[in-house]
Amino acid sequence: MHVVQEELECTRCHRGAAEQKRAGLPPMFVCVACHRHAIPDHPEVAKLLEAYDAKQPILWRKVNVMPESAMVQFHHGAHARAEVACTECHGDVPTMTVAAPVRQVADMSWCVDCHREREASVDCIACHY
Amino acid sequence: MPLHRRDLFKASGAALGVALLEGCARPEPVYIEQPLERSTVPPGASLWRTTMCGQCEAGCGIKVRTVDGNAKKIEGNREHPTSRGGVCALGHSALQGLYDPDRVTMPLRRTSPRAAGAASGAGAFAPASWEEALRAVGGAIAAARDASPARIAAVTGDDGVAGAIWSRLLLALGAPALVLDEPFDRLVERSAAHRVFGVAVAPSYDLERADMVLGFGAAFLDRWRSPVAYARALAEMRARGGRFVHAEPRLSLTAAAADLWLPVRSGTEGVLARALAGVVLAAGRASEEGAARYQQLFPVTPPDLETAARTCDVALARLETTARALLAAERPVAVAGGAAALSRDGLASVAAGQALNLLFGVVGRPGGVTVEGGVDWLAALAPGAAEPEPLAALRRRLEAREVDVLLVADADPLHRAPAGWRLDELVRGVPLVVAITSALDDTALEADWVLPAQVDLERFVVTGAHPAVATAGGGPVLSVGRAAVDPLGEARHPAEVALALAAGQEQLSTPVSWQGIQEAVVEALGGDTRFVASPRESRRAIDGGARAGFLVAAAPAPSAGDSSMGGEAFREPGGTGDDDASQPAASLRLVPFESIKAGDGRGANRPWLQELPDPLAPVMWASWVELSPRDAATIGVQTGDWVRLRVAGSSADAATLEMGCIVSLSARPGTVAAPLGHGHHDYGRYARGRGANLMGLVHDEQVEGCDAPALLDVRVFVERLARPPRKLAVYGRGLGDSEHLPRGWGAHESAPPARSADTRPAAAAPAGTEGTEGGSR
Amino acid sequence: MTRWGMVIDTDRCTGCEACVVACSAENNVPTVGEDDAAMGRAMHWLRIERVVEGEFPDTRVRFVPVLCQHCGAAPCEPVCPVYATYHNDEGLNAMVYSRCVGTRFCANNCPYTVRTFNWRKPAWPEPLDRQLNPDVSVRPAGVMEKCTFCVQRIHDARHEADADERELRDGDVSPACAQSCPTQAIAFGDLADPESRVSRLARSRRAFQLLDDLGTAPGVVYRRGGLDLEETVMGELPLPGAADD
Description:
heterotrimer; A: mainly alpha; 7 helices; 38% helix; elongated; B: alpha/beta; eight-stranded mixed sheet; 22 helices; 28% helix; 16% strand; globular
């Protein structure tokens, strides 16, 4: 919704996506900066503003989860640098109203196929360490 | 068909595998907390904060890796002029001090009465608010002021800004001088330097540009002054062909690194230093001025090497080798302190070591000794305040029942003082005791109020009065840095507690009103022209310093000391420590030392250090004694056993300590070496009851002419514990034998002798001797 | 092709153990407590081994930091039934935790005894867990572990070089132990590059390798210590002055 209607870049809010290991959530400050003025009356936005004013951080359910048991160190920025489009892993987020996972990350063959295709390392300790 | 190794897995794990996959399919939901405010770095990214390590007086430059506000790792700051990228084990472990699960994070008020044996840890306290705490403590101070301000006492281990702020508070209250809980050997060193060099500052040494280093008890690679900087300097010196000879009763890491170890009897370092002075004087190697000054301090003719060899119980050949190397050296430097300082003869011993530098002509020279202090925080921030007094002064005031309010910040005198001082009982008689600390240390357990202190990583930090090492440039280095992380819970800087207490008092004689510690630093530095040209530039200098992690004195170092000052002559060091033939038979001489594991005790709450096998006696999670194979056989113990230590000559109900036993090939027969800093009553789950506090064996032995206990003048009985409390954790991994090590590297320490009659020596050592038959080789 | 390797100068090592703690901090190496430690289950990836010669007063002690030697012909690798440990193209003896099924055959076969096993689920009671390095997986119970040459730091350095669009340079990668060493006794780099610092240090008469007669082709090279003072020319200088008179 943010992406399609407002033409926002993913990295505008997920600041680490292009470079860092983690894409990261934007701080509430960033959400609030727009939403004080943009649809402040929307019930979900109102919740956000209320929490921010009460200095209460919001807990978000993580959508794209790398299971801990995989013991994988995933570097988001490295994949961005390799010009893997956001949608390849995250699906068509621009058209989703509620973000949902499109890929089962625990499926290692999906990772490896892509690594092979792009001639990225398939050494186990490229990811598992 | 050969069995493929995966087949094994397939066969054995097929059924299990299905179950595991089932588990994977429905992962637990994961939640992440959305941060409120924009931070300087994206979430999950590393932010390296340049600051200073505050774990000891050295002030090494460090960088702290933080992720989402949590400290993850400490690494050395390569740009720092003295530590040059190094960090020690204690420094690394600061992270676990910061995140100690039993840290004091809010003010605690005592709820059960203080009484002997009532030290029941955290259970004796209830949480309170800062407001309540400051009101209660401030009220007690106000009441004491009205009655008699002399009955207020403050103790701190911080000789820097915080110490000066406490001094200013005491001055404003009209209370007596601050008590400085500093390392006892440093106290002796400063006293010696006052007479030898004319400055009461513990000297620092430029080992790197020397070509020979003579060590007298100062274990500068272990935990003395600045192990990181000295280790690097020594390595560079040796890489250029320099030599290192070290005299110390125990084979410490420092002695192990020496080209030649002189395993002297405890307390005889001074005799050795005197004999070497004789060699230098006789060879005409000293300048006229240096010789004159030296003879003013030590008017007696020095002993010859043979006498020294006998007194020190070291082979004459070794002393001759040392003397030859010394005469061949162009820039020798003598480093004295540590073990040499803490016997009855300590002051004269250390002075004899320090004074060698007068003969070498290296005072204030490159490759020599510097006695230039850092910023004089006390003079700058508390003009008119009395010089801080040693811990023994507190004992005297407590014994005279002259204290109504006792404030202790960044210090644990009850852990560090000899048991013979009975500080615990005396403190119990003080109506109000306040401990400002990050963990429930021995002092906090006796306090009425425990106030949560920030640890160094949460503070604005700056080195104290003792920048440990002079740089190659000659001037002192001031390490400085901002907090690396936000404080845990409600922890505050102890100096800010002092400021808050001052703010609560009416009509102070002098204001104590800085906005915070950083403001006080800016003010103090403004008056030190070595670091800033004018007071106006102070703030900018501090800002720049905090970014880099250090400030280097720009002005050339003034000549060290005032050599025209007529220092009072020292009594001839005689190695009186152990000449008493009336010593109880079969008693052993205690050789306490600070290990890299616990230091003076502050490292005990960190599992990394508890589980770190000591490099010389690989014990984990306990304290230990090091016995020679001969004494071990006599006592009937071997490595892994437990022993009980009892003070020799004391009554049967005297304190006893239980420790593990390591039989060490390097241990001097007749001695029992053991680490300090263990045996906390609480100090969190990782330290509680671990090991034994050696101070429990020290009574009234004192360094002559100095307010410091003579820890190396204690004799103990060692006996085997028939029922060991538990299995001693001795690190056992190793290559096992030396067959594959390079030629000349010898065997690994062999297993201790089996406990059988025929491996025991025919008789125990004669009473009162160290018993190596003159140390002949 | 890179061959990661390490050179340790035993003459510079003072046995201070800063590297051991640095390693534990960097790699989330758990502590096991006294009871398990007494059973030989301490987990250090790096230990300071001491070599003691002679009895008092002629004792000499030298220190040898011992860690996974990342052997070119590693005895631990062929015995793993599940390929959890293997050799990668850059000379690293890799350990894949998610593959390990805990047979402990590898530890049994390691002549350097540098592999440690998670007998229990490691515990970092709050807030100690705030220190954990997010770049290194916390290993569960039943899994073998050992020194990785700080592979996460190798990857990090590479990501950084990639971001700057350049090749890795000598000195870009420094494992936690090497970084913290006060005397810089530990050097790390590419042994395949003859110009690298480690290659230069390894080309020394003082160089040796641990148990090299076993044919393990270790990736760690040691430099032995110098001579005793008494054996050098210093000891033969004439001694003038008081003692001779």
